[in-house]
Predict the 3D structure of the following.
Amino acid sequence: MEASLTAKSLSDLAKTRMVLVAVEGAVIVGTASLGGAQVHAVFVHPAKQGQGIGRRLMEAVESEARARGERLLILYASLSAVPFYETTGWRTVREHHDGDARLVVMTKRLADGPPRPS
């Protein structure tokens, strides 16, 4: 994942999603993106984990989603990331298998009431 986080790849991704990038100096240390009601590409460099970068990225993604009127967000998490998301209010819906990868589908309600119709 780390090798794919280049300025060009993030610029290309920004054409279809809102992309947030955490930087220290000229180095990308984290990223998260929002496409509709789905959170994508949440990553914090392993050496920078545990410093609040991921939490701040998720807060910014959720804030943007609220501003857009989203009421329910979804993401696909690696098994190792589930505890992080749970501490920020995300709930497991089910497991998802994509080839050999085991992912966990998680959701977070942003507002009271039913999700906004698509």
About this structure: Strands lie at 18-24, 27-35, 38-44, 72-78, 91-98, 101-109.
